[in-house]
Amino acid sequence: MNSNSVAMTDLSEMKHKLETVCIFGTGDFGRSLGLRLLQSGYGVVYGSRGLKNSLLLPKGSKIMSHAEAACEAHVIFVAVQREHYGFLSSLASDLEGKVLVDVSNNLKRGLYPESNAEYLSKLVPGATVLICGDSADAKQQVTNIAQSLSFTALDRGSLRAAAELEDLPLQLFPLWRLPLNIAICLTAFIFFYVLTRIVIYERVTNGKDIAFRIMISLANKAFPIVSLVMLSLCYLPGALAGFLQLYNGTKYRRFPDWLDRWMLCRKQLGLVALAFGFLHVLYTLVIPIRYYVRYRINVYTISLVKDNKTYEFDNTAAWRFDSYYSMGILGFGLFVLLGITSLPSVSNSLNWREFRFVQSKLGYLTLLLCTAHTFLYGWNRFLNPESYRWWMPPAYMLSLVVPCVVLILKLILITPCVDRKVTRIRQGWERQGKTSANGGDTKINQRLMA
Amino acid sequence: MNSNSVAMTDLSEMKHKLETVCIFGTGDFGRSLGLRLLQSGYGVVYGSRGLKNSLLLPKGSKIMSHAEAACEAHVIFVAVQREHYGFLSSLASDLEGKVLVDVSNNLKRGLYPESNAEYLSKLVPGATVLICGDSADAKQQVTNIAQSLSFTALDRGSLRAAAELEDLPLQLFPLWRLPLNIAICLTAFIFFYVLTRIVIYERVTNGKDIAFRIMISLANKAFPIVSLVMLSLCYLPGALAGFLQLYNGTKYRRFPDWLDRWMLCRKQLGLVALAFGFLHVLYTLVIPIRYYVRYRINVYTISLVKDNKTYEFDNTAAWRFDSYYSMGILGFGLFVLLGITSLPSVSNSLNWREFRFVQSKLGYLTLLLCTAHTFLYGWNRFLNPESYRWWMPPAYMLSLVVPCVVLILKLILITPCVDRKVTRIRQGWERQGKTSANGGDTKINQRLMA
Amino acid sequence: MNSNSVAMTDLSEMKHKLETVCIFGTGDFGRSLGLRLLQSGYGVVYGSRGLKNSLLLPKGSKIMSHAEAACEAHVIFVAVQREHYGFLSSLASDLEGKVLVDVSNNLKRGLYPESNAEYLSKLVPGATVLICGDSADAKQQVTNIAQSLSFTALDRGSLRAAAELEDLPLQLFPLWRLPLNIAICLTAFIFFYVLTRIVIYERVTNGKDIAFRIMISLANKAFPIVSLVMLSLCYLPGALAGFLQLYNGTKYRRFPDWLDRWMLCRKQLGLVALAFGFLHVLYTLVIPIRYYVRYRINVYTISLVKDNKTYEFDNTAAWRFDSYYSMGILGFGLFVLLGITSLPSVSNSLNWREFRFVQSKLGYLTLLLCTAHTFLYGWNRFLNPESYRWWMPPAYMLSLVVPCVVLILKLILITPCVDRKVTRIRQGWERQGKTSANGGDTKINQRLMA
């Protein structure tokens, strides 16, 4: 090898390649970690209370007592359950100056240990490893190891941040909480509303039991309504934010907390709406194979024959129903497209302009199509007082309130004069009264720029 | 810490960890960037024209005048709008020898600033940061910082490449343009074709208004045709390339530009075809709940009763329709599979052989099934002169031309004798006449290899 | 540039940025690799037997003879087909001390060379490059280059591991083999079972030919059965593992090989089940547009009219069918959700607890819903001796065996007393008899921890 090649190589890198790493604990996690370290060229030595699992250890590793193992390496992964950490105190002198990596937080070992190996192998190259600690040096060493195992190490600050980090694996869909709660409450409300309006009303006024309609008819009223309302709730905060900026006359003022939190879960709101829309599609498509529907069609045909009447073709009805289905299909198609582009790997491959085009332009088009779909469903029954039962309007009318508000707000925001103002504000312009404190400074800077 | 561990650590790396980075501009982008830098252990100092937004700045950062801030750091991110860049000229002496990072191109700040923070937080670890510049040293420093923030830095060459880079975020689905234009033109053509053939023809010859059929019947003729044609357009360039290589007798000749461009957007062609196929499926599945269809079935049943006729069961029709639907479902199922494997995260997890197997073998099987589906739709009406109206054949017959051409070309290419030739060419073999210029050299090399 | 910045920069890194890399071979792969290297700032020199393809080479690269090119660089990529490797032996002296990178294994050049460029460009930043070799130094240099091209280099050990590595690109869905074979065998078995029970039975006993039902009716019996059985096969190994751990009284004993292999392909089993479930949904939804179904409904209506009977509404039937469809839709909806979360990019964004919640909790819920769906399909015909034909029970009854076993096993495992035991075992507890060998050691450790 010539001298040039020696200069080329980062020698310090080479050394840690051959370094020995110590793992306390021979459980699934310790073994998986050790295997991966060995594959990446590290030496691996296990520290264990006994030797009972030594047969299961990856080939090429060594096993010794905790104290002996600690002497062999500079970086020590503590892969035993936290309630057994006591033994570490007796090793205090052996651990002097070592980098101790506590991996327990990250994986909740012990609770689901049968699958930890699976989880670790699921960690594809490129997975992120969150690291926090007070020694920059120690962090760097762990980062180096993580990178050798093809993980992306992400420094999450000092040891004080560890508490937050430890909670991360215990979180269960934090951003999905609010949307799911809204969905559950809305579904329950709409369900009891249509239950009262249809099943109970029929029972009370006609004494007929049509409770079997709960399974499909009523579900297929609740699902589309929840879907439409949640889709519009997904676009409402953006519109509100626009009006707030107009009112404030500046973009340099924080939004209220509730609006911030709302905006953060827009994606989740949209995906829950899509799930309900998907169920609506399936519930609609099974209609013609339902027993009840076949029965009704059959009874109607027979009644026409017996009364010697003909089924008059109603051209308007043909237009109405076909438009109604067509809007629904196109809306759902676009909705699925929105869902696909919100997959992490797809949205990462879009640039900012493309992402905005899909999620904003196509999103509003979806909302428009779905709202039109609902209006066509109502058709001339809309606002018809006869369709009220016990003063309750049909459920679909309730579902139109939020989408219409969102669409009207958006319509106002895209009128040229309002749009111009919003754009200027978003480019940093501020209404005079708001900037009095630093107006002078701004002017000075503008002069410099001239 | 023992001496071994010191050797292990890359000290130069450690230093830049603690380095201070300067950000000019306290807007959304500047604040988000600063927060991320702080989290990664950098010191952050903001340079600002005033102090008005200092309350919004991330905790731990400092704010000072542009000149003072510039002195504190070696790397300076310029996160103000480009039209305000003027102030930089007055700082010329303070900026001497500094690395100035212009991030404006990358995100189009100013246009959509309300969402930049959202965009930056959307940038998951592993996102790619494109860098260009003339100083390898400066680029390396920015690369280091990007990597500390867990982005993948991608060197895109010298400053001359910056113009191209600046256009990247302004691109709106460049590879989708051609497929979408083809889809729109094809849809419009087929739509007007079937409009003429069905609605206008009926109006002219029978005086009946069946315009309501536009919404579903006609849409459901246009969508499957566009889907099938575009699916075959997705496989046509590969077949053409094979024949071109056979004709050229070598693979060492560039394909014509139009073929290159066509081959580059095959994935997009296929996905647009899938979207149209998806709409076709939904339009087909709503058929039985359409008012018009229920009306026709009802009228037919009543007419049978009145005429005292029975509905003779036609075994051939049962076979034909069931096969027709079955081919369609299987074709669509495979098509969805192709779509899923073209998701970035899925296709990245396939090796080359698997990717080829799915996209080529299964792709051709999909095309075969969908073509068979269309042939079964035509059945004995196929090429039947009675189905012509105003000399216009049924639309589905038009849709079969391209798929049949593709399938025939593929059939030729996979016949053993042709396949052998193509494989040899693709392994580097060249027809004699083509290599006369360097035939001697080739022979010499072949002798060496013996 | 001030001294501070010099210290900050890793100089050895800077040098290799400007280094020249040699590529033997000017084919598609060599050209694509060279372009990418040039873009990343490397010098590129091609070694070629002739100069015939020099016009196609990326701008900025040089071309010379193999020997001359070898002298220009320290790292040499050998991008010619393996059967032409002979020429390397004549260059032995020129290659002394060089790092020779054999990329041939990785991409099977020569077989599909027309698409290699496409494949290389498909390799997004972050793609993994597997490296093995005996010289740590050489490996580090190749790793550096790979990282400069924004690939993640993954060290796969010494040269002995190369054989395994060479097989990687030849693998064709290794983890899908078992699930697909199970699916094919099951489908074939169920298909011939229902063929005998329905078509052949009808032919033999009534002399009627209903073979047309193969296309949809029979397929729609086979697909849901295969889907349900495979979904339950996906959860069976986990339940078995729980019982095995209970029986062993420890988790520190390897599962038998067949169970390990089974557990490794659970995801694939589930996805194949989902694909069959998807086909089942489509086959079910086309039912009402089938010729045969329309015929039967028509005949039934006419017979009612002629016999002057009315279609009595059966409230129980309405409940039964609607519940049946509803369970199916909800089960399928959840199943699709499971499928989406198993996409690499989605499952990577979940933490361990979320992943387990979806794949285990929601997975069992899906299984429960789909099993209920099947029971409701059977309804009172279930275990009815009249539904046996030639002693063969209806096919759906067969399909319920495995799901019921899995659900019963799971039910046992989640009863409080069993669950407590399993949890303790999974946290490392071992039954007394099993730990006699190292019981003393354990006790000592427990004393230390107190």
TrEMBL record, chains A, B, C:
Domain Ferric oxidoreductase, residue spans: 225-359
GO biological process, one term: copper ion import
Entry GO terms, CC: endosome membrane; plasma membrane
Transmembrane segments: 178-200, 225-248, 269-293, 323-341, 362-380, 395-418
Residue ranges of every copy of the Pyrroline-5-carboxylate reductase catalytic N-terminal domain listed in the record: 20-106
Entry-linked PANTHER family: DUDULIN-RELATED, METALLOREDUCTASE STEAP4
Name of the molecule in the record: Metalloreductase STEAP4
Organism: Labeo rohita
